[in-house]
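Deviations from the work plan: none for this task. Representative record:
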Amino acid sequence: MLKIVVDCFGGDNSPIANIEGALEALKKDDGFIAVLAGDEEIIKKHLANYQYDASRVEFLDAKEVITCEEQPTEAVKKKPDSSLVKGCLALGEDADAFVSTGSTGALLVGCTLKVGRIRGVSRPALLPTLPTLKGGEVVMLDVGANADCKPLNLFHFALMGSVYASEVLGIENPRVALLSNGTEDAKGNELIKQVNYAFRHSPSINFVGNIEARDIISGDCDVVVTDGFTGNVAIKSMEGISGGIFATLKKSISHSLLAKIGALLMKKSLMEVKNTLDYNKKGGAVFIGAKKVVVKAHGSSKASAITASILQAKRACQNNIVDVIKDKIANTPVPPFSAEENA
Amino acid sequence: MLKIVVDCFGGDNSPIANIEGALEALKKDDGFIAVLAGDEEIIKKHLANYQYDASRVEFLDAKEVITCEEQPTEAVKKKPDSSLVKGCLALGEDADAFVSTGSTGALLVGCTLKVGRIRGVSRPALLPTLPTLKGGEVVMLDVGANADCKPLNLFHFALMGSVYASEVLGIENPRVALLSNGTEDAKGNELIKQVNYAFRHSPSINFVGNIEARDIISGDCDVVVTDGFTGNVAIKSMEGISGGIFATLKKSISHSLLAKIGALLMKKSLMEVKNTLDYNKKGGAVFIGAKKVVVKAHGSSKASAITASILQAKRACQNNIVDVIKDKIANTPVPPFSAEENA
């Protein structure tokens, strides 16, 4: 049976939300064993409050916790007994997947050092699933694993994103778009122009052209390819403005009784909007290209988001995402990145 | 008296909104003459519907219009009789400023060819003024003039942004932040790491550190420095999500009578939020570093946004922004961009 390690420490609501999320996932899907990583004593004390199938719960005892404030490389080195490092190490043994709400930086370092990348993949990437305005889903990568990218990295991102969209989200022949500062092929910085040329010359990518950032969640594409610096800025810009809108609205309402009543009547709609755009509901960001399935759930994840992340990891394992990516990378010719190279 | 050329053609609501915006600006500020650029016959026909001080209105007849669909460099070359090109040319003569709702690309090309940059400025940049969640204003540059930037360009952006924030917005000793994928100095791509080093070593910049994209509009800084590719992605991400939220809300409300009533009661608050975050209300984006004041108002600008852009151009002229930038660039030593360079 598949073994999914759940890091019970490191998030804002850990360990309780992480434990509850794991137990809920066990109820929803009977195809895996949950390995709860962290201080076993503390975890067992919390578990006493719940009913669950004990035969599908294992423990990975770890006394240390890596915080988001620590420098990632140092933290991974200095805390071998942390749930995060032990979770990464378990992937080198018989575990199939790891879900963590801990420090993104430390998780990337831990995975890179202890798990490694799929043969042929030039750089693994962080891939979140975002809700679209049409009610569907879109994946974007990289949103932060690689601040500096070469054209080949983005070509691999396109292949891996396409595999994820088709195998895990069930999207047939996913439409790939390249994030740029204009839709025309001639737009973009030097990196993006080269990648655009390559995408136009690769029959393996269902390339629908460049998109502007305002259309990331339009629903007109299934995979958005970008370097890790730009992707990080894009996703955090969206987070910032969306948080800002709801905060401003709340403040404005507080000044008026009528508005307060209005907000009550609109509550369902307001929640619907918040939920529609809340990408944490879709699970975590996958560290795609790593040799095993690794999912980074948001640090502020509640139990439901952790359940979603675990089930997402399960789907990725079940659909052999790692092997499919390995084959895809091995069997796809690398296209030219410029007319000169093509000559 | 100052002469401000107003491009009456090229925006979604042109020429009427542009003409109305200009007349309103004339009413609000008696310190300038408006030169209306575009087909004189058509403009005069519209003007017949308004009362205004004819002694402060001049005309710059131009029969052609450059559209946003045209390739900028070609369009500028092929349409010398367009309001956009003639407006740029007027800046080479006695006009002090140019406000346009036309094609951003064509305006940048036109300015670069016909107006030129301030001596010493390595690259002019597009600078919009954004509203902050604290009720203030923040400027960001570059949001699209330069897709590929060198560290020196961003150093000049910081100086020009600081001058703009202090001279036009009246912010004393503006706080400069560098857009990155994390707040720590070590974060960022290669470009940003070099610029961070330079900002830390320049006493002329009131550097408050790196910021993440979610904090652009937090109100914790006055000038956000970024390259034109990343800045474009950031601003369009914000636009996209903000438009998406209101569209989703509208759709959700349409399904429920209670929610509709709620929305009516909340109307003031909803409008307040929309207005708070609508950066077009703050005027247009300044093409800063050009030899004359050039303001690009949003293509969808209504009369009020055009009025705001004209008054913004007026303030920039009145405060001699071009001369202040020239002096600032000439008198500020360029800091080292790395420890090696500093050794």
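The longest strand of chain A covers residues 32-38.
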